[in-house]
Write a structure and sequence with these properties.
Layout: H1 20-34, H2 46-53, H3 57-69, E1 73-75, E2 81-83, E3 94-95, H4 109-123, H5 139-153, E4 161-164, H6 167-178, E5 184-187, H7 193-201, E6 205-208, E7 211-212, E8 215-216, H8 218-228, E9 232-235, H9 249-262, E10 265-269, E11 291-296, E12 308-311, H10 315-326, H11 334-346, H12 348-371, E13 383-387, H13 394-403, E14 406-407, E15 409-410, E16 423-427, H14 434-448
Parallel strand pairs: 3-14, 5-6, 5-9, 9-10, 10-11
Antiparallel strand pairs: 1-2, 4-12, 7-8, 11-12, 13-16, 15-16
Helix pairs in contact: 1-3, 1-14, 2-3, 4-11, 5-11, 6-7, 6-10, 8-9, 12-14
Length: about 450
């Protein structure tokens, strides 16, 4: 095959880039987004393209069928296949701002939903799925939670678990149960914005504690605990949001020791543990009596499944947590909880998560290739923490990206103090099609390579 015969919009097919027909369809869609192809352009005949790419005709047929499904192509009989005029806006916002699991290749989510709900309705009284339930989850839900958390903790007592309507509710309930108005909550300088939102609403104060490339610094945490008389520490130790840092085991042990010495509680928000490559044990394994551990399904399965499992080992503390939770969220939606339980127990959740994990890693490889030396991800998880060149500020880049139809999140959205970090977070899962994700990452790369419009050199 001669490279010059290959259409300019089509990249080389990657050996480990997923099914080839999807690579071709994604490349076609990316070419439409970046302007390499325009409505009305004629595509090569399928046999010719198959010969040029050294693939079988079936691969090309499947690629063209997929592109038609996306409303990108139209057939004109004997005249061939052409790029279709857009039926809707061709270039909507490319959302690189929302941390959601990417849609896994090869998983029929519609069929999975139908099968799961069918099993739920076969095994449960429909009236029970539409009425009030006791907060904290049913016995079956807690047993499913124990199964879900087994990779982190081994065998667990389901009675120590609380089922919550998502991690945000669990964080809020932890704050209400473990602190008083006016108390200080210690967190890393860059942390999950939902913590700040909940703390502000409840009249608590977030105070940043110095972090390094391994996460929160134990010596600085101990000083802050004693100086601030803090009662609660918030940590997101695995693929941290937003920095993508994973704390090593030694750092986790040191922080657990500080928690014991200073008699503080740790809220360990750990949504990405199951997506990480060989993560260390949770902090909760080193100080089980000091840690409330939160694991949500929204970040590793699908955002619409608002179910989180919370491990609270102390019975009295668990009752305070439940009382706090009931003050604003009486229960998890019974249908959501039942579907989550069904999927976990029949293995569907594990299969979906494995698909999400593979897709996320493929997208990280794409980001590493496009962003080159600026890529600072861990190779897994849902996001990349991108440090900016000195001539860009996070707010400048976010505005410039927005003007080009791209949404990114500047560092200020995650800051717990006044210190600024010259970085943005790029999320890799919220754009469904890889081709559009590729186009968005390429636009960000092009922005980074040029000076902002307002930049001017000093004159001396």
């Amino acid at each position: 095959m001669q490279d010059e015969l290959v259409p300019s919009w089509l990249p080389r097919l990657a050996m480990h880039g997923g099914p080839r027909f999807l690579q071709i369809a994604d490349a076609l869609q990316a070419a439409l987004v970046d302007g390499s192809l325009k409505p009305g352009d004629r595509l090569p005949p399928q046999r010719l393209l198959a010969a040029q790419l050294d693939v079988d005709l079936t691969t090309i047929t499947r690629a063209y069928d997929e592109a038609r499904r996306r409303n990108l192509l139209e057939g004109r009989g004997a005249r061939g296949t052409y790029v279709a005029a857009p039926k809707v806006e061709l270039n909507p916002i490319l959302d690189l701002s929302m941390n959601t699991p990417p849609p896994p290749d090869g998983v029929d989510f519609d069929d999975m939903m139908k099968q799961g709900l069918s099993q739920v309705l076969m095994r449960a009284d429909s009236e029970l799925l539409m009425t009030y339930h006791l907060g904290g989850g049913s016995d079956a839900d807690r047993k499913a939670g124990a199964t879900w958390l087994a990779p982190m903790f081994g065998q667990l007592d389901p009675g120590q678990l609380v089922v919550c309507p998502g991690a945000q509710a669990a964080i809020a309930a932890s704050i209400l149960a473990l602190t008083e108005p006016g108390d200080v909550i210690l967190a890393e300088p860059m942390t999950y914005p939902g913590l700040r939102t909940a703390a502000t609403q409840f009249g608590r104060h977030i105070v940043p504690v110095e972090a390094d490339r391994h996460g929160m610094v134990p010596e600085m945490l101990e000083k802050a605990c004693r100086r601030r008389q803090a009662r609660l520490v918030y940590l997101n130790p695995t693929l941290q949001n937003p920095t993508a840092i994973t704390m090593p085991e030694s750092r986790r042990k040191e922080l657990a020791s500080v928690a014991r010495r200073c008699a503080v509680r740790i809220v360990e928000d750990d949504p990405y543990w199951l997506l990480a490559e060989a993560p260390p044990p949770p902090i909760a394994t080193f100080a089980p009596e000091r840690v409330v551990y939160i694991s949500t399904l929204s970040k590793c399965l699908t955002p619409g499944l608002r179910v989180a499992f919370v491990l609270v080992r102390d019975p009295q503390e668990r009752e305070r947590f439940l009382a706090a939770l009931r003050s604003f969220a009486l229960m998890v939606g019974p249908l959501s909880a039942a579907l989550a339980t069904q999927w976990i127990l029949d293995g569907s959740a594990g299969g979906l998560m494995e698909g999400v994990r593979k897709e996320a890693r493929l997208r990280h490889r794409m980001a590493r290739d496009i962003l080159s030396g600026r890529y600072s991800g861990a190779g897994d998880g849902l996001h990349v923490w991108l440090e900016l060149p000195a001539y860009w500020t996070p707010s400048q880049l976010a505005r410039a990206a927005d003007s080009e139809g791209i949404a990114v999140t500047p560092a200020g959205a995650f800051a717990t103090g006044s210190d600024s970090v010259n970085a943005i977070r790029i999320s890799l899962g919220s754009i469904k099609d890889r081709g559009r994700l590729q186009a968005g990452l390429q636009r960000v790369s092009h922005l980074l390579a040029r000076l902002p419009e307002s930049f001017s050199a000093a004159v001396v």
